[in-house]
Specification:
The two termini are 19 Å apart. Strand 4 and strand 5 form a beta hairpin. By secondary structure, the chain is an alpha/beta fold. The chain contains 15 helices and 18 strands. It has 2 domains: 100 residues, Roll (Urease, subunit C, domain 1); 295 residues, Metal-dependent hydrolases (TIM Barrel), CATH 3.20.20. An 8-stranded parallel sheet has the order 8-9-10-11-12-13-14-15. A 6-stranded mixed sheet has the order 3-2-7-16-17-18, with no helix packed on it. Bound molecules: benzoic acid and fe (ii) ion. The site of benzoic acid has 7 residues, from loops.
Length: 404
């Protein structure tokens, strides 16, 4: 047994002081330090540095490791030139993205306190890295393909990847899951099969949705920049689905929708009604010129996530949170900081259906310790100072083992 002691602990009831946490691979007890050391006299006591806050390990619900080799290759600024650049450079970027590149990005996430992440996997290239990293990985095997002629081949390949992720042994901490690329790129027949598969095996399900205004225009009117794109790369000029048909395909299975920046009030109300959730990626949305998700108007559980290095400059979750604070000037800053810390802990864990994300007895002993330069004067600013002053956390535990 270990007992960890920090000046503050981030609990579901807020930041508390004067308590310690006893843990093996799971959290066993939370109590005053005196009582814990009396109850567990042989325990190893770990004292965090002064001015430290013990958080549950952080959760990044949406990342694409396979694009980790991108630095300056892809075109940022507007969505369609970016998508063109992805198609044109995909093979080179994938080729340059070997295991060492992806492992190093898992480490970068870990240094920022990420102990669990949802990895969108287009080809299965990151499976070995995800098996080896100590972090919990929800591996979202992605289905893509709008052309019905290739549907069987694409679905077969997708099933093989799902199967491989189901066979990972439990030490790898991998949870198999399913991702639908987007409304514009997945044929409705394939979509239905994949949703049924997720339901049948109770797998977490995710889909990019209404990221750009070009996507909206294409799905609503069959016009705009996507028309040229589909003519150029796929020799077609009609969308395979529309917004309503796509969203309704998920009605019976709560899904993690990514972006939703261009979703209207009615669509957001539907997403809420069906108990779906949203991954909000502030930097990705800004870098691809997609707009701002009006988080102050939505009453839907959302996570803050980095997306991949194909539309970002780092996978550091604190870089993302700071960008989020700058993007959403509509919300009082300390309140927003509290919401963000919840979004990468309790809400992230609910979304990925993991038994972590809160400091409570019975949860996995996944921790991130943040050490502030001074103790804050006001308790209501603890989340804010955490976000503003943290580039890297000072300690990380996963399943009770120390990794940073
Ligand atoms: C497709 O497979 O249909 C597709 C892939 C990427 C972007 C758009 C469409
Ligand atoms: Fe994404």
């Amino acid at each position: 047994m270990n007992i960890i002691v920090a000046e503050y602990i981030y609990t579901p009831d807020g930041f508390v002081s004067g308590l310690g946490v006893a843990f093996g691979d799971k959290i066993e007890d939370i109590d005053s330090i005196g009582l814990l050391s009396a109850k567990y006299p042989d325990a190893n006591i770990i004292y965090a540095k002064p001015h430290s806050i013990l958080y549950p390990g952080f959760i990044n619900t949406h990342v694409h490791l396979e694009f980790s080799a991108n630095k300056t290759t892809l075109a940022y600024g507007d969505f369609m030139p970016w998508l063109d650049s992805v198609i044109d450079n995909r093979d080179d970027l994938m080729g340059a993205c070997d295991n060492s590149v992806m492992s190093s990005e898992c480490e970068n996430m870990m240094k920022s306190g990420i102990t669990s992440f949802g990895a969108i996997s287009s080809f299965g290239n990151e499976l070995e890295v995800c098996e080896k990293t100590p972090q919990r990985v929800v591996l979202f095997n992605e289905l893509i393909g709008s052309n019905a002629s290739y549907a069987d081949i694409l679905y077969g390949d997708f099933l093989n990847r799902v199967d491989a992720s189901m066979k990972c042994d439990s030490h790898s901490r991998i949870t198999p899951a399913i991702a639908i690329h987007s409304p514009y790129s997945v044929h409705p027949i394939l979509l239905q099969k994949a949703v049924n598969l997720a339901k049948e095996h109770s797998l977490p399900l995710s889909a990019h949705l209404l990221e750009s205004s070009a996507e909206r225009e294409w799905l609503e009117c069959g016009e705009g920049e996507f028309k040229e794109f589909f003519q150029k790369y796929f020799n077609t000029s009609v969308p395979v689905t529309n917004i309503d048909e796509f969203i309704h395909a998920f009605d019976t299975y709560p899904t993690h929708f990514v972006h939703c920046v261009q979703a209207n009030e009615k669509e957001l109300a539907h997403i809420k009604e069906k108990n779906h959730t949203i991954a909000h990626c502030p930097r990705s949305n800004r870098y691809l010129g997609c707009g701002r998700l009006a988080i102050e108007d939505i009453d839907i559980p959302f996570s803050i996530a980095t997306d991949g290095l194909s539309s970002n400059d780092s996978l550091n979750i604190f870089d993302e949170l700071r960008a989020g604070l700058m993007l959403h000037q509509q919300v009082p800053i300390a309140e927003l900081a509290d919401k963000f810390m919840e979004s990468i802990t309790a809400i992230g864990a609910d979304i990925l259906r993991l038994n972590c994300g809160t400091i409570e007895v019975g949860k996995e002993a996944d921790f991130a310790i943040v050490t502030l330069p001074q103790m804050p004067q006001r308790k209501e600013e603890l989340s804010l100072w955490t976000i503003l002053h943290t580039k890297e956390v000072s300690e990380v535990y996963i399943g009770g083992e120390k990794y940073v």
